[in-house]
Amino acid sequence: MRVHRFTAGIALLLAAAVLFAVFYFKLFTVGSSGVKTIVVVLKSTNVRADFWQTVAGGAEAAAKEAGARLETVGPLKDTDAATQALQLEEALESKPDAIVAAPINDERVMGFLKRIQEAGIELVVLDTPLALSPQPAEVAGNHREAGRQAGRLAAEETDGKPMAAVLGDYAASTVSSEREAGIREAVGQDGFAGTFYVEDSEEKAYDATRSLLAAEPRINAIAALTEPAVLGSAKALKELRRTGDVKLIAFDSTLYEIRLLEEGSLDAMIVQRPFNIGYLGVKNALKQLGGSRVDKSSLIDTIVVTKINMYSPENQKLLFPFR
Amino acid sequence: MPGERRTIFPLKSIQSSIAFAFSCLLLLAIAATSLSCYRLSVDAVENNSRSYIKEVINQVNTNIQSYVDNMENISLLAMTNKDVKYYISNDSFISDEESRPYEKRISDLFQSILYTRKDIASIMVFGYNGRFVSDRRITTLNPNAKIEDQAWYRNARLAGGKSVLSAPHVQNIIQNEYRWVVSLSRELKNVDGLTADGIFLVDLNLNVINDLCSQINLGSKGYVFIVDGDGNIVYHPQQQLIYSNLRTEKIAEVTAASSGSSFEVDDAQGKRFYSVKDTNFGWKIVGVAYETDLIGYKSTLGRTLLITLAAVAISLFVSVVLSHRLSRPIRHLQRSMRLVEKGDFDVQAEVTQMNEIGQLSRTFNMMVAQIKNLMQEIIRTQENKRRSELQALQAQINPHFLYNTLDSIVWMAEQKQHEEVVLMTSALAKLFRASIAKDQELVPIRVEMEHIRNYLLIQKMRYANKLDYRLEFDEAVLNDRMPKILLQPFVENAIYHGIRNKPDLGTIVIRAMQRGGRIVFEIEDDGLGMTAEQLEKIRETGDGENRSKGIGISNVDERIKLICGPAYGVRIRSEREVGTCVTITIPKWPAKG
């Protein structure tokens, strides 16, 4: 009966080999198609939207580093919530491993983010803090710290006696309110002249600056949270010949703002690191897919750029995204 | 069984041994070749990849070099151009109005160069006399950018006539233009070749280098980066990460590495190879390739290895099946042989194939048939022999016995002993009738008992004062049957060898009894007994004295064994001066019906 035992042994071995082979091939095929797919949904994919282009660049860098497949989508205008919602839906249907989204603050967008979470797809939110539960991992500029940086700068420039006004866009904007809070923190209650909402209008900013300075001559620093606010305010200060006298501090950078900084109309810019936001966003998504926990909220430091350091190698890269 | 395990193949059947041996052989051979192939391929792939990276880096180097050479050539062109020299010369022989055509000519020249070269962003000359000319007709300089502060400007002045290549930077001297460029600048000398008149600038679009480097494919994760002589990064795909310390690059190692060398780094980011190449304008071009990419074939190779293993498994299986099929007829034959061993000669091994084993089976079948025939023949012969012997035995009534008996009868008749004469004659008649009767071979024991009684009666009359006898036949066995005239020779022996020569009275006791399904006869006398030699002689020839061709006791024994089996037969126990006892054992043949 040894023969039978031998045959049985061989059969067992064979079965094991076949099983192993099957599993291996299965794993292999899964492995090759199992390259992690990540969809990045930005607020804008407009080639002129330097910030988002750089975010996309960072995301690509992280994806390449990890050998993941990346797809970047986004509406042309960063206010086009309908398109973004649609793109989120498409992303959801394509069943990627993770979605990294910079959501526009909108009900439909939020709805899809919720559905993405429910579908079990890893979600990382970029740039904008969100009220979602469970709270997704977040990667954003440290807006409050940016505000503090601005406030501290204002205080330094005014020999420690700041009287700062803030030109914001909308009271509801989470980013703006974070920045504002940071400024208030840094300059203190005595040095804070108030926040004025000028929406996305250069003219309103211009008017606001003029009336502000007329009403409160002690104001020696203006923090303009958006580009229109900066442009309007700079124009007003120039006309009032208060440029340099009233410190103007901007957030984020655009070409117009850079020019203002070069000519001295703008004293400083608090610049985010969009490349890092995109990079960390994708990296965190990959980390979560890999099973390791990441910080719920990764805040990227901002940089203070003045006329003096704007052409340093590091800051050049930030101010003039290379394409 | 445990002892058998000592052999090389611990398996009993040929099939398993063959399968085992071939499997081992196959496995060993395939494993050895696969492994060595794998090692060789991995080495080859690695070497190829390394030389590939070097090749790629060289290519990048050549390309960048050609761009830089081109800029150099343009700068030489500008340097040797008379118009340029006059235009920026401090000599006042060209007034401002006169300078217009010069400016136009120079601008046209630059423009035509620019048309032919897509990689050049701008060409400009700045005279120390405050004049400047560019490749465009109308150029507005950025009022907020001071040329004197620009690195390329300062470095060119310091270099004193040699060309200077800048790191990539944003060129901001033209209003509203912020382009990433690499600048080549050079101080232009006066006609006398000693005094400096201005700075020449040619900007190379960084796109050119960027595209060049980013298009390089060094696997999915590999990349190319460039550092300048001081270790500052000229180009790196993840420059921003490095600036913000999210990533580190092995700048120190790269600066220390000589041109054409390569080194290996193994850290959290994975094992990777750095390949460094110096350019002749001070930059170092570095190619980084990850091991996982390089030996991406490794998985393919591993898969091949696996396929090989699967093939081995399949061939193993096939070999087992084949050997099983091959050895099956042998096993059939073996089984048949075992049956034959047990005595079954009706076995026929099935002949399925006409190969060696088929022929073997056929021969085996023929052999078994032959053996069977022979056996049957032997049995027949033996039977005939037994029968003829029995007949001979039965036929043989000793003539002396007859003569003596008749003598005795005559003697008794002369003595007028009528009754004795009648008794003896009738006994003799019965004796003869019994031995002549040929109808049946087996007779009831009762008949045999009567026969012996008649015989002994005659003998007793002859040896009246010498012989006494007792018949002790169990009632139970009287109806069973036995071969005819089985006992007479032994009784005869007992009388002639034991009793006749005994001085006083001898007694013969004949018993028949049943013992465990057998019938046992005992013929016991208290005669002279026999020596071993006599016993031997008796065994050979029966009573050798009166009969020259008597029936040997051993013959009777053999006959009984032949008919009834080895458990039966004749046993003789004899002792001098005590007597002899013969025991005959036969099977119990119950009475007919």
From TrEMBL, chain A:
All copies of domain Periplasmic binding protein, residue ranges: 39-291
Alphabetized UniProt keyword annotations: Signal
Stored SUPFAM superfamilies: Periplasmic binding protein-like I
InterPro entries given in the database record: Peripla_BP_I, SBP_2_dom
GO cellular component annotations of the record: cell envelope
GO MF, one example: carbohydrate binding
Subcellular location: Cell envelope
Chief localisation class: other
Similarity comment: Belongs to the bacterial solute-binding protein 2 family.
Protein name: Substrate-binding domain-containing protein
Organism from which the protein derives: Cohnella zeiphila
UniProtKB/TrEMBL annotation, chain B:
InterPro entries tied to this protein: Bact_2-comp_sensor_kinase, dCache_1, HAMP_dom, HATPase_C_sf, HATPase_dom, His_kinase_dom, Sig_transdc_His_kin_internal
GO molecular function ontology, one term from the record: ATP binding
UniProt-recorded name of the protein: histidine kinase
Source organism, top-level taxon: Bacteria
Compartments, as annotated in UniProt: Cell membrane
Gene Ontology terms: cellular component: plasma membrane
EC primary class: transferase
Signal peptide: none
Upper taxonomic lineage: Bacteria, Bacillati, Bacillota, Bacilli, Bacillales
